[in-house]
Amino acid sequence: MGTATASSRRSSPPSSPSSPASAAPAAPPAPRRALDWRIRFGLLSLVWGFSFLLIKVGTHAYAPFQVTFGRLLFGTAVLAVAMTVKRAGLPRGARTWGHLAVAGFFLNALPFSLFAYAELTIPSTLAGICNATSPLWGMALSLVALSEDRPTRRRVAGLGIGFLGVLTVLGAWQGFSGLDMTGTAMALLASLSYPIGWIYVRRTLAGRPESHLSLTGAQLFLATLQLAVVTPLFTTWPTAFPVVPLLAVVALGALGTGLAVLLQYGIVAEVGPTTGQMVTYFIPVIATAAGVTLLGEALTWNTPVGALIVLAGAALTQSRRPRPDSPLAKTRRPGPLTRRRAPRPRQP
């Protein structure tokens, strides 16, 4: 669960908050990295999957706004160091900074705060599963807001299957008994906030000449300023700083936000956005395993079953038909039982 890129040149359906896989600006092929992308992919899945556990631990001692402010502060610090090392300058233009402020609100400040407040009353496992609904919300919103995203039977079916999975997780047939509706609603609204932000970014910041690192660093900085204003208004300064919750907040920011953004961008630049956004489907699994094993959270049968249905639906909403000019479309003639696969996107 991290920040979304603030620069996108290609049209692709919005992906999850945890896996903001918008294509980066066009650049030469990425140099060969010492650490294989599969290892970095696994590390990214772990970091974002454990973010929900870190939020829960942080809120044991600090107010949700304080957890979010700390997360953004340490995440921004990591990106500031990376920008200094790579000599990436800040974006220019008041209009660009205005758009980045809106992006920072919908992609960082708002969803991070909602998840922190949600985990006051719901398990981290449920928060992680709610996070996986972002592709479903994105699919629904893109059909209305993005003319290039045409509905297909497969994607519409995925939307329906995904929300059926949500109802399964929530235990709809039991009347949602034992479920804190306020906390769950906050987690779902946090997941909805991400695709709203992605659509806004695609409409206002796509094609910017600045690097992904420059735009995302500025976006996080502005989100941090927003929380710096809001936090003192609604919270009081902590009287104590317990070590474990403090370390959880530091790790949430430095690893779950700052390092995760750098890892995700590197993966997308190397293997493409389609592969990069697959991290979405590992996050709820890791979040559930972490919450159950480390926090002792209860797990009923409908939670993992519903999560699998949600992920299946989300995967269908992300599937796309091959382009007519792609090698796949020319060499394969899909029949009734032939599964269509999207071609591998060109490297950004």
Could you please describe the fold and organization of this structure?
The chain has helices at residues 37-58, 64-86, 94-118, 124-131, 134-145, 153-170, 181-204, 212-234, 243-271, 273-276, 283-295, 302-318, 327-331. Helix 5 (134-145) packs across helix 7. With 348 residues, it is an all-alpha fold. Helix content is 64%, strand content 0%. The protein contains 13 helices and no strands. Residues 5-28 and 325-348 have low confidence and may be disordered.
Assembly state of the chains shown: single chain
Strand content: under 5%
Number of strands: 0
Order of helices and strands: HHHHHHHHHHHHH
Give the fraction of residues assigned to helices.
Answer: 55-70%
Which secondary-structure class do the elements indicate? mainly alpha
Radius of gyration: 20 Å
Number of helices: 13
Shape: globular
| Largest sheet composition | none
Mean pLDDT: 81
Which regions are unreliable across 5 or more consecutive residues at pLDDT < 50? 5-28, 325-348
